[in-house]
């Protein structure tokens, strides 16, 4: 750019600026600015035309005032006038003002665009560059509309100067980023790609940024750039450091261009053409070789440039993931960096290795560095590097080294930085579960985890350990013993108390034989923690106590005493109070058989994806997890919540709910999913036992969720133990199709019949079952509606109603069939056939 | 209580720094500078909270005084102290400026030691302070032990503001009633809000320990006397020249110097006191009813097209023709896109001040019951800004020789039983000055 000659230095501007800088206070500054503004206004208003120099000076002053933070609402016209000047400095100031202060004022924009157009079509390269810079700086939609078609022409024209080409490429990139729909490459595509072959390295560097951006959007159109990029890369890589003159940076030939080329190649899969691929592999090898060479300079810039290319090459190798040889070499190279004294290099090496570890070819190679990584985790000063080390350990973990890694991570956890503790805890929990061969090891690990970093152990972690303990018979005894021992510590974390309460409540009997852990000792141990815990934990402990009554009748008196004391039975917390009252009653009224049924051991949980994993994904941020994953994890968490925490008291709570429709009705935990399926089943039979004097109980095997529900609907009817079965999904769905899992809402749907007669009983992707019922004295009428939600017809659709023998004569079936069409105009086929079955029964 | 006190210059450099409590660290100094003095947006609130530390500041010309505390102190007390501190400094070395503060820093530290103890304000009476903090250098020899002990007993005694044994050949006292009148008026001449805040400042040169009694036309006192039927004429009324003939005024609230016996005021509403020697402020008060507005401003603004504005302003004086108002200044705001102004005025001088975006019209003197007029033509530069000009109010400054509240001093009696001079021997001077506070008329 032409330097500003001495005569062009604006004295008035310099004086003004120094005046402002010398102002002693804000007020003085504002006064000075007001004075200057008034002066400029009177000058612009004045009748005699201003010459270019003074116009430029005043526009400059306005710009300066604007940059100080004051509003400028005039002078735009004068700035636009400057654009048409022939002097570089005046034009430059004009463009500067426009790019800083332009607003979408219609008439001005038209004038500005006109001036820009004139400059673009002029032959003067500096003017063209100024215009292009202005377009790029403003980058508004209006600009894009006006010039998006013009700029590609300038970019590929044969007679355009190199500097203009650079500006044009970058300007186009900017416009493409702000309004991609307006920049249509179309016919220019191939010529733009061929800019990679341009003689001038600056043009290539500018063009490659544009191409990378464009090819990310439509890779197919720019496919040809791969071979050109490879050949360009190989020319650069193989060139001597002196070949490229201006573009050699501290003995590294064109480092920026190389990085950009490598990044462009990462947009595409490995080239199919063997020759191109060979050449590329050669390039990558050369880059890896060069990394081994002794540095040509001691300057940090030299090594930075070299390493930048190397890391970009390694990420390309990882991206291709097809060259075992290269992958292993990359891994070895990174391994050297792991012990480099530059912290940034170590960080980058750890980060790249994380991705390398997931590749099957290099996994083993990564594993050889385990000692170094563990060392890094322990000794690094920078927390972000330690975090990367932890990530890498997590990534390189497999069955062979799980024990070592988990042990290391656990020991590190004690001193770990607070910001990464929660993530570390999740990782340890996942690894321990994933690679557990021996479940006693798993239990030990998790309990250790809770002990070391209790505050950072999220709910999911201890839910999971309980799920696993319940599902595995072999560890239950061991778990009970370990938990008992862990609880003996004078201060233990609340999460530990939760786990302890749950496990001892379930499996305390397994260790009761030992006099050191006799039932009373167990109870006293748990109760000693009771007062230090929060309300949810206390609630859980109360449930554990009632289970103790069931497991060890000898503790009954002690526990009843505890339940009866004022701090429980008159607790200000409703939940605790209700539990205390109900458990007390339950333990004093119900016979041991009933207790045993109500407080049966929990059924195994269904196997499912670990919710901890989902949580970790969520923690890592939305960048790595898709939205559906997140939703999954939420739902998973929700279900687990019910299954894990509320599980233990489901049965007991069910009993109370039948008699008192309390607000905690959702505690029933009635779910069509299996986890607590058996609990309501037993509750169903319990109901009959407890609340009906008449003996004939329905065989509990025959009672499924729905049957149980019918009982609840109308407690007065339950004494007749009328059970209508037949709305089960397996019956109604066509045999050819697997019944889809019920929608999550299904659970709530069932619950609402506790106090309602009508509504949707069941719904999944195939079928909707509605129920409508009326009861009048000794008569009851029940309608069942079956809705087909699919577009195909159901074949051989049958419903079965089972009922106790003596009622058979009283039941009258009325079957009707009606067809209903909904939403005919939507694309989805929603024609729903509604069948209703309405048994009318009387006795 | 106050944890520390800092004085900064306009650049935020610390001139004086005195920390009284341990909870205020050195970084508090920087916190105030960064967050208040150098704040990107001008800080308007006098109290700023930074990291659970409260900063109370007042600004005198370019000097910032900031009191810092971590406790929940009485903000009014802190500000009262800061103002008092300003008064004390002014009494010692004149105007508060960077130069003066730098030249007197030893004195200021000495004063700070005396008037603030562990953050608790102490005696800040200038007269009393001057007896033991002097500017004449070391006078160790001239002050005897007895004198020093006398100072101690006086400062810690019941009447801390006056020492014994003062003697004047001429017993004289000066009484100034200083009022500032604040007004906001609609363009149609309707009073939107108005109040007068006034001060009674006294300068006394009296011998011995005189007992004084001050009387004014306070409505409550006058009414009570009227009921009692004893119309006691003191002969000292109507010293001023207020135009209204009303007999009494309603005082909304008032505060007194510590020398006034409040118990007596509460029970009898009489103001009696033993005055400090020299100048001090006897009372402060505020009235809102029946204010005499010395000037009326009548604005006329006409927009002629987009590029021209015609402004005509008439001011009318509203007091006895025999009185003269002084230092009259009318400030007419101009739009932000003013490019030129032509002004014509009959009286005084008017000028467009671009740096303040206003036309300033100055008149030296103006008698009562007169009127004067200014007309201006303002040329505007068309802008692409759609914002309309907000038309700020026209403001005014003046000084008149009467009290706009209508307050009159009825008497000021001096009793000194021990020395042989009586009330009649004291020479008394009373002066009324009414100034403009924020005196604005919307246009």
Automatic annotation (TrEMBL), chain A:
Residues reported to bind a 1,2-diacyl-sn-glycero-3-phospho-(1D-myo-inositol-3,4,5-trisphosphate): 11-12, 43, 53, 57-61
Subcellular location: Membrane, Coated pit
Keywords: Coated pit, Endocytosis, Membrane, Protein transport, Transport
Region called Disordered, residue ranges: 622-666, 721-745
SMART domains given in the database record: Alpha_adaptinC2
Predominant location category: membrane
Keyword Amino-acid biosynthesis: no
Membrane topology term: Peripheral membrane protein
Pfam families in alphabetical order: Adaptin_N, Alpha_adaptinC2
Compositionally biased residues, Low complexity: 650-665
Highest taxon of the lineage: Eukaryota
InterPro entries: Adaptor_Complx_Large_Subunit, AP2_complex_asu, ARM-like, ARM-type_fold, Clathrin/coatomer_adapt-like_N, Clathrin_a/b/g-adaptin_app_Ig, Clathrin_app_Ig-like_sf
UniProt keyword Transport, yes or no: yes
Alphabetical GO biological process terms: endocytosis; protein transport
Span of domain Clathrin adaptor alpha/beta/gamma-adaptin appendage Ig-like subdomain: 751-842
GO cellular component: AP-2 adaptor complex
Family the entry assigns: Belongs to the adaptor complexes large subunit family.
PANTHER family attached to this UniProt entry: ADAPTIN, ALPHA/GAMMA/EPSILON
Name of the featured protein: Clathrin adaptor alpha/beta/gamma-adaptin appendage Ig-like subdomain domain-containing protein
UniProtKB/TrEMBL annotation, chain B:
Ligand binding (a 1,2-diacyl-sn-glycero-3-phospho-(1D-myo-inositol-3,4,5-trisphosphate)): 349, 351, 353, 362, 364
Membrane topology: Peripheral membrane protein
Disordered: annotated segments: 224-245
GO biological process: endocytosis; intracellular protein transport
PROSITE patterns tied to this protein: CLAT_ADAPTOR_M_1 (PS00990), CLAT_ADAPTOR_M_2 (PS00991), MHD (PS51072)
Domain MHD: 170-442
UniProt keyword Cell membrane present: yes
InterPro entries in the record: Adaptor_comp_med_subunit, AP2_Mu_C_sf, AP2_Mu_N, AP_mu_sigma_su, Clathrin_mu, Clathrin_mu_CS, Longin-like_dom_sf, MHD
Gene Ontology CC: clathrin adaptor complex; clathrin-coated pit; plasma membrane
Chief site of localization: membrane
Keywords: Cell membrane, Coated pit, Endocytosis, Lipid-binding, Membrane, Protein transport, Transport
Tree of life domain: Eukaryota
Cellular location(s): Cell membrane; Membrane, Coated pit
KW Cell membrane (keyword) present: yes
One Pfam assignment: Clat_adaptor_s
PANTHER family: AP COMPLEX SUBUNIT MU
Protein family: Belongs to the adaptor complexes medium subunit family.
Protein name per Swiss-Prot or TrEMBL: MHD domain-containing protein
Organism encoding this protein: Pagothenia borchgrevinki
Organism placement in taxonomy: Eukaryota, Metazoa, Chordata, Craniata, Vertebrata
């Amino acid at each position: 750019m032409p330097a500003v000659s001495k005569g062009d230095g604006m004295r008035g501007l310099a004086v003004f600026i120094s005046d402002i800088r010398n102002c002693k206070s804000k007020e003085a500054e504002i006064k000075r600015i007001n004075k200057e503004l008034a002066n400029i206004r009177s000058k612009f208003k004045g009748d005699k035309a201003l010459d270019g120099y003074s116009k430029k000076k005043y526009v400059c002053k306005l710009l300066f005032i604007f940059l100080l933070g004051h509003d400028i609402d005039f002078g735009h016209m004068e700035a636009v006038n400057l654009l048409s000047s022939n002097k570089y400095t005046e034009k430059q100031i004009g463009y500067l003002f426009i790019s800083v202060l332009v607003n979408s004022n219609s008439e001005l924009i038209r004038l500005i665009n006109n001036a820009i157009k004139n400059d673009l079509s002029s032959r003067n390269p500096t003017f063209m560059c100024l215009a292009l810079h202005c377009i790029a700086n403003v980058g508004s939609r209006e600009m894009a509309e006006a010039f998006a078609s013009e700029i590609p022409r300038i970019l590929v024209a044969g007679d355009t100067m190199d500097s203009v080409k650079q500006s044009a490429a970058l300007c186009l990139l900017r416009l493409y980023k702000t309004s991609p729909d307006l920049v249509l490459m179309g016919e220019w595509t191939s010529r733009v790609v061929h800019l990679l072959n341009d003689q001038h390295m600056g043009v290539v560097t500018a063009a490659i940024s544009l191409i990378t951006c464009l090819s990310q959007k439509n890779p197919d159109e720019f496919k040809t750039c791969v071979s050109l990029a490879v050949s360009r890369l190989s020319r650069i890589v193989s060139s001597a450091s002196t070949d490229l003159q201006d573009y050699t940076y501290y003995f590294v030939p064109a480092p920026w261009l190389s990085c950009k080329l490598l990044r462009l190649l990462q947009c595409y899969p490995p080239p199919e053409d063997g020759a191109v691929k060979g050449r590329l592999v050669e390039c990558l090898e050369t880059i890896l070789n060069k990394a081994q060479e002794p540095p040509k300079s001691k300057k940090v810039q030299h090594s930075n440039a070299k390493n930048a290319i190397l890391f970009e090459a390694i990420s390309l190798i990882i991206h291709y993931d097809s060259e075992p040889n290269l992958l292993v070499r990359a891994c070895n190279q990174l391994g050297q960096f792991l012990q480099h004294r530059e912290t940034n290099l170590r960080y980058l090496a750890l980060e790249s290795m994380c991705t390398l570890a997931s590749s099957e070819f290099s996994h083993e190679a990564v594993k050889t560095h385990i000692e170094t990584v563990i060392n890094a985790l322990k000794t690094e000063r920078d927390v972000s590097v330690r975090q990367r080390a932890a990530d890498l350990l997590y990534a390189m973990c497999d069955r062979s080294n799980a024990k070592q890694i988990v042990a290391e991570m656990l020991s590190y956890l004690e001193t770990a930085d607070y910001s990464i503790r929660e993530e570390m805890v999740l990782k340890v929990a996942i690894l321990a579960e994933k690679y557990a061969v021996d479940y006693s090891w798993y239990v030990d690990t998790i309990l250790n985890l809770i002990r070391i970093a209790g505050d950072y152990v999220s709910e999911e972690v201890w839910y999971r350990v309980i799920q696993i303990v319940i599902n595995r018979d072999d560890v239950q005894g061991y778990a009970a013993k370990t938990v008992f021992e862990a609880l003996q510590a004078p201060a233990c974390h609340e999460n530990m108390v939760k786990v302890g309460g749950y496990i001892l409540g379930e499996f305390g009997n397994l260790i009761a034989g030992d006099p050191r852990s006799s039932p009373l000792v167990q109870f006293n141990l748990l109760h000693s923690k009771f007062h230090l815990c929060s309300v949810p934990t206390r609630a859980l402990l109360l449930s554990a106590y009632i289970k103790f009554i069931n497991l060890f009748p000898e503790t009954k008196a002690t526990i009843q005493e505890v339940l009866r004391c004022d701090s429980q039975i008159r607790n200000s917390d409703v939940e605790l109070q209700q539990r205390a009252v109900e458990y007390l009653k339950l333990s004093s009224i119900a016979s041991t058989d009933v207790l045993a049924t109500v407080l049966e051991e929990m059924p195994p949980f269904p196997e499912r994806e670990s919710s901890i994993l989902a949580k970790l994904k969520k923690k890592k941020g939305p960048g790595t997890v898709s939205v559906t994953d997140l939703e999954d994890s939420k739902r998973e968490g929700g279900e687990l919540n019910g299954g894990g925490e509320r599980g233990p008291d489901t049965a007991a709570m069910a009993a109370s709910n039948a008699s008192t429709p309390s607000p905690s009705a959702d505690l029933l935990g009635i779910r069509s999913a299996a986890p607590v399926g058996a609990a309501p089943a037993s509750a169903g039979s319990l109901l009959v036992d407890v609340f009906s004097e008449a003996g004939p109980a329905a065989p509990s095997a025959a009672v499924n969720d729905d049957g149980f529900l019918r009982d609840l609907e109308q407690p007065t009817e339950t004494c007749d133990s009328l059970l209508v079965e037949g709305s089960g999904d397996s019956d109604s769905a066509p045999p050819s199709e697997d019944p889809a899992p019920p929608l999550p809402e299904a659970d709530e749907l069932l619950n609402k019949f506790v106090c309602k007669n009508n509504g949707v009983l069941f719904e999944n992707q195939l079928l909707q079952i509605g129920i409508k019922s009326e009861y009048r004295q000794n008569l009851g009428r029940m309608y069942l509606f079956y809705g087909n939600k699919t577009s195909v017809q159901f074949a051989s659709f049958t419903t079965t109603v089972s009922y106790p023998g003596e009622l058979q004569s009283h039941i009258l079936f009325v079957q009707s069939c009606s067809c209903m069409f909904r939403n005919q105009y939507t694309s989805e086929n929603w024609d729903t056939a509604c069948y209703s079955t309405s048994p009318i029964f009387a006795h | 209580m106050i944890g520390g006190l800092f004085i900064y210059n306009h650049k935020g450099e610390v001139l004086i720094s005195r920390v009284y409590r341990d909870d205020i660290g050195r970084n508090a100094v920087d916190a105030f500078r960064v967050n208040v003095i150098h704040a990107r947006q001008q800080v308007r609130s006098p109290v700023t909270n930074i990291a659970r530390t409260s900063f109370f500041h007042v600004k005198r010309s370019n000097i910032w005084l900031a009191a810092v505390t971590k406790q929940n102190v009485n903000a009014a007390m802190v500000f009262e102290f800061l103002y008092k501190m300003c008064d004390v400094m002014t009494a010692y070395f004149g105007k508060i400026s960077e130069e003066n503060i730098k030249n007197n820093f030893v004195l200021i530290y000495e004063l700070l030691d005396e008037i603030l103890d562990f953050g608790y304000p102490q005696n800040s009476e200038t007269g009393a302070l001057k007896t033991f903090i002097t500017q004449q250098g070391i006078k160790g020899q001239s002050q005897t032990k007895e004198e020093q002990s006398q100072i101690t007993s006086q400062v810690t005694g019941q009447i801390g503001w006056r020492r014994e044994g003062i003697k004047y050949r001429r017993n004289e006292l000066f009484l100034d009633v200083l009022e500032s009148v604040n007004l906001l008026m609609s363009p149609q001449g309707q009073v939107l809000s108005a109040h007068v805040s006034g001060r009674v400042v006294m300068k006394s040169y009296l011998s011995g320990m005189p007992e004084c009694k001050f009387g004014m036309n306070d409505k409550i006192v006058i009414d009570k006397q009227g009921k009692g039927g004893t119309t006691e004429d003191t002969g000292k009324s109507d010293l001023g020249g207020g135009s209204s003939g009303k007999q009494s005024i309603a005082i909304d609230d008032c505060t007194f110097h510590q020398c006034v016996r409040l118990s007596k005021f509460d029970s009898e509403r009489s103001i009696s006191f033993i005055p400090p020697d020299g100048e001090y402020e006897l009372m402060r008060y505020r009235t809102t009813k029946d204010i005499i507005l010395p000037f009326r401003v009548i604005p006329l603004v006409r927009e002629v097209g987009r590029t021209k504005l015609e402004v005509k302003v008439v001011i009318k004086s509203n007091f006895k023709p025999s009185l003269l108002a002084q230092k009259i200044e009318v400030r007419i705001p101009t739009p932000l896109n003013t490019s030129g102004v032509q002004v014509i005025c009959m009286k005084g001088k008017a000028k467009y001040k671009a740096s303040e975006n206003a036309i300033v019209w100055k008149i030296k003197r103006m008698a009562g019951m007169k009127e004067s007029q200014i007309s201006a033509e303002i040329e505007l530069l068309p802008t692409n800004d759609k914002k309309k000009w907000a038309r700020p109010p026209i403001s005014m400054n003046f000084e008149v020789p009467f009290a706009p509240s209508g307050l009159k001093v009825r008497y000021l009696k001096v009793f000194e039983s021990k020395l042989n001079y009586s009330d009649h021997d004291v020479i008394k001077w009373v002066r009324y000055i009414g100034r403009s506070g924020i005196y604005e008329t919307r246009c």
